[in-house]
Every structure is written in structure tokens, then in C-alpha cells.
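Throughout our pipeline, every protein is held as a single compact record rather than as scattered files. The remainder of this section carries one protein's record, kept here as part of the documentation.

===
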Amino acid sequence: MSAIVSAKDVTKVYDSGFKALKGVSLDIEQGEILALLGPNGAGKTTLISVICGMVNATSGSITVGGHDIVDDFRAARSLIGLVPQELSLEPFEKVINSVTFSRGLFGKPRDDAHIERILRQLSLWDKKDARVKELSGGMKRRVLIAKALSHEPRVLFLDEPTAGVDVELRKDMWDIVRGLRADGVTIILTTHYIEEAEAIADRVGVINDGNILLVKDKADLMAQMGRKELCIELQDPIGEVPAALAAYDLVLGEDSCSLIYSYDTRGDRTGITSLLSDVAAQGLVLKDVSTSQSSLEDIFVGLVEDAT
């Protein structure tokens, strides 16, 4: 796949001297879902605002669909749809009018069929004549997405799209995002919900303190950086880890009836076979054995901690 958005050495320094972006370079591939993770103040929203032309970069360059966002702003911006964090909607406007108006802002000719298709896709068609103030928070979020899609963009930015949305509706939103990707729309979302990135992203980018720490395929990231844990449940509680097992760096479970062993999935040898043999040699009776993989949240927290 080719990059539809390309940022090269982008910096943003505010008048106060605060450096929000510190030489960010990022290629976003056509047709992918990229999840951009980072703590508050990491630079996620600033980066999106710069790409969308809402904030001017201090230095660096960005192209969207091959169009420079400064020299060819209109062409670049026409390819972008943006769903902001804030529910910024006219409360007394009807849903269908609000979405149709957004299409007109980009100079697109009237297309009732396209507007209907979007509203149906987002389960808003039966609400088309409702005023925005009558909608729930989740439905208002859908209206924002409909407005962002009204001019048929090829790149959609979702800034915290499920903030304040309940779990059930959040999963509905994930289905919507997958459907948009199936239609060929490139999607970049920022999120605080690690499970959101784990559920729908193709690649994961981690940003902290204005720097991109990494951008990797989600599966590769978890395979390369993730660790597994082996939990050995014992028949009877023990007071401490036997000294003869010290080489394994075992952790005694809170219930005193389990031993936790961490190992690298990339290693040629896991050490599990010898561990189990040595545990038995200590006279400890095994009740059960189970393994668990590090989650994306574990990896994310580790990366941010390493960078600070």
C-alpha cells in the first residue's frame, strides 16, 4: 500500500515556547486503520490539527494524497474528514440539514442519495428530521461522523471518537469504522481506550511528549514486544518462593498458591520444561498451569515509561 498521508519532520512550537511536536515523521497507508495512542498532552490532537490545516506547523512538511497542505490547501483538505472530540453541533438544526450543509461547505453538488446512504449506514436515517438537541450523546457523535463523511473524503480523522460513549455503543462504533475501511476510507483515530486500538487497528502508533515512539503492525508489535506469563497453581499455599528456584525470577501470587513466571516469546527456549521439573523436585504439587499474553495496554505503558 502507498502512503496517502505523509508527514516529514513536523514541529510545532507555540508562542509560549511549548514544543507540542518535535520532528514528527509519519506515513499513513491508504486504506488502513491507524490507532494513535498517547497520554494527555502527548501531541495527538496537535498532530491531527496540523494535518487538517487547523494549526500551522512551525516547520516540516505534510502531504495528503500528494497535495501539500500549505501550497495546495484546498485539494488536500477536500480529501480529509475530521470528527473532533467536542460535540460541536448546532442544537436546533435538523440532522439531515446539518449533514447536507457540511457537504456544501466543500463546494460539492447536492447529492441526496449520498446523504441518505451515510445516514442509513450510521443508523441515523430514522432521526433525519430530529433536531440535534433531541439526540443522545452517542447519536450526536454519529452526526459528527456523518458530517465528516458528507463530502466523500478519502481520509477520516477520529479524535477520541468514543469518548463518553457506553460500552455497547462503542462496539457499534467499531463496526462503523470497519465498514468505512471496507469502503476504502483511510482512518486515523486517537484514543485513550487501549482495547479500541486492539480491536480495530491495523497499525498502532505511540506518541509521547511530541515524539513518535514507534509505528508498527499491531500483531507484529504484540509478537515482538509482548511477553507471556505462565501461572503455576499449587495444591497448597507456600510462604515464599524456594531458594532453589531463584534463577527463574518467580513471583509468588497474592493467594500464596501460585507462582508467576514471565518469559520472552521470541526466545529460543522458554525454560518452562526445566522450571516445571524443578518445581516438582521441590515437592510442590501442581494443581493447574495456564499462560497469558501481554495486552497492548501492557506494551503501551512500558513504552511510555521507558521514554520518560
Q: What stands out?
A: The chain has two domains: 3-223, 227-293. The chain has a mean pLDDT of 88. Residues 3-223 form a domain with the Rossmann fold fold (CATH 3.40.50.300). The longest helix spans residues 167-182.
